[in-house]
Amino acid sequence: MISTKNPRSHTYTLRFVATTIGLLLSFVLLLVMTGNSRADVSLVQTTNSADRDVTNITATFGSAATEGNLLIAVCGSKDSITISGPSGFTTAINQTGVPSQGIFYKVADGGETNLTCASNSQTYLGIHIYEYSGMVTSEPLDSTGSASGSSDTPSSGELNTNTADTLLIAGLTLNTESSISGWSNSFTEEHDFTIGAGRPADRMTFGGAWRTTSTTDTYSTTATSDNDDWRGQIAAFRIHVPILSVDIVDSSGEPVSSPSVGLSSVDASLECQTTNGTLGTSNERIRINNTTQNDNWTLTMAATDGSGAAWSNGEASYSFNDSAGNPSGCDSGQLSLNPSTASIAPQTGCSSAGISSGSNAAFSQGVTDSITLLTATESQTNCYFDLTNVGLTQAIPPETPASGTPYSLNVSLTLTAN
Known about the structure:
Blueprint: E1 9-16, E2 24-27, E3 42-60, E4 70-77, E5 83-84, E6 90-95, E7 100-107, E8 114-133, E9 141-151, E10 159-160, E11 166-174, E12 188-196, E13 203-213, E14 218-219, E15 228-238, E16 244-249, E17 263-267, E18 273-279, E19 285-290, E20 297-303, E21 311-312, E22 317-318, E23 334-338, E24 343-346, E25 355-357, E26 361-362, E27 370-376, E28 383-388, E29 390-396, E30 409-417
Antiparallel strand pairs: 1-30, 2-17, 3-8, 4-7, 4-8, 5-8, 6-7, 9-15, 10-14, 11-13, 11-15, 12-13, 16-19, 18-29, 19-28, 20-27, 20-30, 21-22, 23-26, 23-29, 24-28, 25-27
């Protein structure tokens, strides 16, 4: 699949081909495609809290979290103790030491407001929490990294992303009262807060920053602060990438590397004749995948090289879009599609409501250069749909030379957001 930042149009190219022997004529369809666009990631809300001589610490969002958004909690402690994340959260990274810190996450059920981290003994605790929209809702964690030391340049440590589009969260816990500034590598600071009183040894500082990525790479950030013990961590979470795409897949849903559709072979003849085939079979399904918010789209088919294209075996050729003759197409050749015979199978748990098949139509140069296979109006999103059993009929003009080399025609499927 070729990525593009515009999800409005997605094309898959095909080619007709088949093996020929003796006086037989035959054909095949070869398929290609494009597509993808990243969603907007938004920090919906964030807040923090800190206290001393406690075994738990709670931060409260200003409004209830929205279902499907990603919740992240970064919790730090002054002492070398075990920190537990909020109830129902998964640990991204959790380390003990002086200081201790952990990053925890959860896809929101909806309604979450109070998030609490706990320790296994009384200590100084700080928590900063985040809610982000535009993230994946299944296995959001991509990778983590960490570092620790005693200096005035606390660092998150490094991580290597496995996914191009990620959200990076960096957390710092410092065993001193300080201010954190100068986050490097395009990180935006969200939190810089302290707790404690009296001697510097009784004070702490907590910080958090974030950014997004668009390429797989090694990422980290470093800040400046007063000189003391610190711990830094970084976690990458996958951003949801909406897709409006067309592909050819097998019965297991895996892309077919060299898909083909063979039209029936015929003997060379002095008379006009036809050959038939089926576009979309159980092992070569046309799959439309839509995880965008747009529920209106159209799937069409056209010759890849435009209306001037032709069937060719490298020596001889004939037309796919000339309606002249009786029956139609018999003078020079014409290809017809019958989407009305097609079957539409939605993803399990989804419905094909709002998706309709196109009408039986034939290519005609300058009149019908593209044929509609499917049209969706207010269809279900975050689903895929498999199209099979589209009828193909090619009128073959009289005296078309027989060939041991297949006649072929490149054709494209284009999926367009309406």
